[in-house]
Amino acid sequence: MFPRRSTQFRKAFDDLLDKAGVEQLVGLIDDLDRCLPDTAIETLEDVRLFVFTSRTAFVVAADEAMIEYAVRKHFPDLPDTTGPQTYARNYLEKLIQVPFRIPSLGDTETRIYVTLSSSAPNSARTTQRSTL
């Protein structure tokens, strides 16, 4: 986007937020890694339009390795000096300003999660029946 158009976009978007009475806009993008690589890149490029707007933030939930794969697939002809892995990492680091990485569950945590999630609906149904 050209600087002039970028400035016009930011001003128009700010005016829109003012008219809507929105003090802070937060966009949530979940499961981006489940999209096709081209769709994931298009979405990230759309988010990039808003990076320099005021009062706007995005939370992107995705498997980082899958998004890096999408970047490498989208830009297959990168020069050897840049390297596809390095470029993919740099692309994400410039776009995602505050990364928050959630570690994978281990075996014990997975068992606890499955046990708790499978028993929760039964206890909720029992509570509803007893109050009727």
TrEMBL record:
Taxonomy, superkingdom: Bacteria
Domain KAP NTPase stretches: 10-128
InterPro entries recorded: KAP_P-loop (IPR011646), NTPase_KAP_P-loop (IPR052754)
Protein name as catalogued: KAP family P-loop domain-containing protein
Organism the protein comes from: Neomesorhizobium albiziae
Organism classification: Bacteria, Pseudomonadati, Pseudomonadota, Alphaproteobacteria, Hyphomicrobiales
